Amino acid sequence: MAVDPLIELQDVNKHFGELHVLQDINLTVGKGEVVVVIGPSGSGKSTLCRAINRLETIESGAIRLEGRPLPDEGKALAGLRAEVGMVFQSFNLFAHKTILQNVSLAQIKVRGRKKEEADRRSLELLDRVGLASQAPKYPAQLSGGQQQRVAIARALAMDPKALLFDEPTSALDPEMINEVLEVMQQLARDGMTMVVVTHEMGFARSAANRVVFMADGRVVEDRSPEEFFTNPRSDRAKDFLSKIL
Ligand code: ADP
Ligand code: MG
After folding, report:
1. pLDDT at site 2
2. In what order do the strands lie in the sheet with 162-166?
3. Which-ligand-closest: CA of 50?
4. Which residue has the higher pLDDT, 158 or 245?
5. Distance between CA 14 and CA 243 in Å, rounded?
6. How is 67-119 classified by DSSP, letter by letter?
7. Is 176 helix (H, G, I), strand (E, B) or coil?
8. pLDDT band at 70, cuts 50/70/90?
9. H/E element, 165
10. Which atom of ligand 1 is nearest to the CA of 39?
11. CA 124 / ligand 2 centre spacing (Å)
12. Within 13 Å, how many C-alpha atoms sit on residue 212's CB side?
């Protein structure tokens, strides 16, 4: 049975100069769904994520959140970025603020929470990602895996409707990848709607409802992980999988 759509992309196109980076993209992410996006470098995965968060504009087509077009600017745009949180490869924490301040800041500025309320919520979320004891420290005192978990807590603090992850573990040392993936697995189990660009095929197999395979700016396959990994249809996907598995 089809789930309620949360994010919908319809015939989305975008160029960078001559490069047709998003070509007639049609994609629906249902409420509570986990969609893993994979594909070769340069296929448009980051641009897709950034377009959903309106960090990139599109030239034609439509992107809707809960049936409404994305806002263009101003307060509504800040609201969108809170409702659709993004976690990047580089964690982008403020170096001169504590972990607690990093998680509380946007709650105060964007959500209008009082500092005490924001800090309470931050501590809850830091606890959820296993880092409550690190709250008074500064980002440089934490490992990369810990910093990425703080970035996830910071995104969750906005009470987002969905989270976009753009290669969240690519910058991490191998021994830190699992602690971040485990937090993401737990979010998936808790019903968070997630779009995850990743090369972690174990995560895709165990957490994804669907795998979207992109190549050259197109969605080439959009299927269950089971179907995709056991029986990829396109030569592009077969070729890609033969290189990474
Ligand atoms: P992926 O995340 O799949 O590696 P990207 O979405 O980052 O792919 O990039 C897709 C293509 O668009 C690449 O060829 C990249 O060089 C190009 N590109 C990305 N951002 C820009 C930009 N701001 N200006 C020009 N070209 C860009
Ligand atoms: Mg990318």
Report:
1. 64
2. 84-87, 162-166, 193-197, 34-38, 210-215, 218-223
3. 1
4. 158
5. 28
6. TEEPP-SHHHHHHHHHHEEEE-SS----TTS-HHHHHHHHHHHTS---HHHHH
7. helix
8. confident
9. strand 162-166
10. 3
11. 31
12. 23
